[in-house]
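User: Teach me something about this protein's shape.
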Amino acid sequence: MTRAISLRNVTKTYGRNVRAVDRFTLDIAPGEFVVLLGPSGCGKSTVLRMIAGLEDITEGELLLDGERVDGVAPGERDMAMVFQNFALYPRMTNRDNISFPLRMEKSSEDPRPRVEATARMLGIEDILDRYPSQLSGGERQRVAMGRAVSRRPSCFLMDEPLSNLDAKLRNHLRAEISRLTRELGVTTVYVTHDQAEAMSLGDRVAIMRGGVLQQVSRPRDVYAVPANIFVATFIGTPRINLLEATVHAPLDGRMSIDLRRQRLPLPEPLSPDHQLLRIQQGRRIVVGLRSEAVRIATPAEARPGEVPISGLVEHMEYQGHEALVHFNTGSRPAVVADLESPRPAPAPRRRRRAPGAGVLSRWMESAGARAGSDPAPAMGPVVAVDDPDPFARETPAPGAGRPATGTSDLVVRTSPDVQLRPGAQVPLLVDLAHLYVFDVEGRRICPAPSVLPGLDV
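Assistant: First, the predicted structure itself:
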């Protein structure tokens, strides 16, 4: 029997001020495979341990099939956990390791039939009578999985089970885990920092940062419609191109996105997504382009929705099945503060007011803080552009029609057969259907979010 798992505003606090998990809410259907994805230290393993009962919940509720189980002991939750470090008993044979939880649960039953069936399922019949020290890393992980499978639990909890293995073995076991969990139909929560595992295994992917849930979607939707800059940059290889930009929306002309030295004219009539950009006129924005959203082609070869730009070739990366071309288009890459960190930088602490400070001094201090503050501060765990004035437009010098070489701002995926000389100016076509626009707080503006802030009054 498989079970539904629900976490409602779950918070885990260590000490007074350290919040490892902050108001985490997620519903997992029976038999669903959900992956918790995020950088190391973001709180995903803490969530898994709270589900297992190995960590107490500071605030919120954990429900199994609609029944609250916050205070239920781990052994009574009918869950099996697979750890990163295998956690096998070194003085027991692999057969004994697999049968150990069966003997603990029902000592009167013979565990051998179930152990043999599990071993056949995992292809480890010939190593049952060996010891863990005599096995390779992949074989040890199979034995650890066998110990979990033999119990026939209602839920599998897997905490980065493949991270200690080499790439080839990791890919092989990933396929086995996918096959096994679908054959058994058991609810599975899988923790990893590897996006390839998350995208290939999960029915849904839950991305975390700083203990906060950023987005929960199907793998395809996480890649195609990221909720914010952090998700967009964390998912996808190579990393999404982020460029500083402004919206140019004249009343009597064509609307465009200004990339400093070049512009992306928006097709008319404007799509609903592009119409929303009009209110961003004059504001700082960040444009996101996946490497496959740009192709090498002349303006005459443009398809509907594609607009031309050009770029200078900086260098090429040959990947075997493809090539990555680094271009300089004269744009400025967006510098995002603490993008790869597991949690955002803490907000600066307010300076204590000196004793006896009067009303006038407090007013002057407040006014000075407002005058010197960033007009668009970062919002909680969401990243922001880290530049005091990143969108100051530079006027090209007279006769300077091409950007200077030395800095690439755009990576384009192309065929491995393409041969380009560094320094060559190449025509490019940008597919505006795959254009992302984020505000300076990292929230996605285009494609339009499903819920528009401030419009529900």
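Now, about its shape. Residues 367-401, 452-457 have pLDDT under 50 and may be disordered. The chain has two domains: 5-226, 234-342+381-392+404-446. If you'd like, I can walk through any region in more detail.
User: That's plenty for now, thanks!
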